[in-house]
Amino acid sequence: MPSYSRHDLADLSAFAAICRRGSFRLAAIELGVSTSALSHALRNLEDRLGVKLLNRTTRSVAPTEAGSRLAAQLDQSFGEIGAALSELDRYRSGPLGGLRINVPRDASRLLLSPVLARYLDDYPGVKIEVVVDNNMVDIVKAGFDAGIRFGDTVPQDMVCTPLTPPLRWVVVGAPAYLGRHGTPRTPEDLLRHACIRLRLGDQTMYRWELGQPPRAHAIDVPGALIVNETDMALDAALDGIGLAYCLERCAEPHLRAGRLRRVLDEWSPAGAPLVMYYPSRRQLAPALSRLIEAIRGANGLPGAIDG
């Protein structure tokens, strides 16, 4: 396949305009250049191609046989390019196309599930793929448009938009467990309790974070059970296996029903919000910006986002 440069493309576009208009003067007006500049461009194009494309006199201009064949092919090709560019208007005018998002399990249940039905009903031109993964991934390398994580874990070269206010973390236990083992009063008391330990996506063991500076504690709690997601930790707490540490919003239904109780409530910290993160603020896809707005609105934040 012969190589060509951006100069070739510009000169080919100029050649097509001359053939379409049948005049250097009219083509120059269409392209916003001088007649002499247009004539110079055509001479350079013919020199580079080694083929005469136009027969011209002081009164008329007409393509040669080679020029006529090239002009016909260019009309078709430039027409296809124009149609492809016009197709982009559909993406600019509203949410459309595919959206691929990587989210941890808690975010999928707390943030996405409550809004997806309404969102897909409002924007039928959007298709969403949600990959639930508690591991931190390189969303660009893995082919995702965006991800959701806690704001203090996102790489600094990413753009972040908060989806929630700061989130509260709590220690919870079943009434039966607390009746047998007593209620911890200080963070240090946890060292004498059965705790449901949590392994993070990077395979490290999570240290329970309690309190706020300057009284903050990070405790490597004891316990016979290790899990890597919140639902199983809550199920274990409900079964009386031990105390669990989780987002208050995840435990809320059980707390309201009395199946679980908060302990060390005064030590419950407010942590980073969940955020949507993506590589660039420039030309954010409408499908993603509308999803962000829907989630923010459902979580008590102003729907509109900057950029």
Automatic annotation (TrEMBL):
One of this protein's GO BP terms? DNA-templated transcription
Q: Does the keyword Transcription apply?
A: yes
Keywords attached to this entry: DNA-binding, Transcription, Transcription regulation
- Is Transcription regulation found in the keyword set? yes
What protein family is recorded? Belongs to the LysR transcriptional regulatory family.
The organism's lineage is: Bacteria, Pseudomonadati, Pseudomonadota, Betaproteobacteria, Burkholderiales
Q: Name one GO molecular function term.
A: DNA-binding transcription factor activity
This protein is called HTH-type transcriptional regulator PgrR
Classification via InterPro entries: LysR-type_TF_proteobact-type (IPR058163), LysR_HTH_N (IPR000847), LysR_subst-bd (IPR005119), WH-like_DNA-bd_sf (IPR036388), WH_DNA-bd_sf (IPR036390)
UniProt-listed Pfam families? HTH_1, LysR_substrate
Indicate the segments forming the HTH lysR-type domain, all copies: 7-64
Query: Which source organism?
Result: Achromobacter dolens
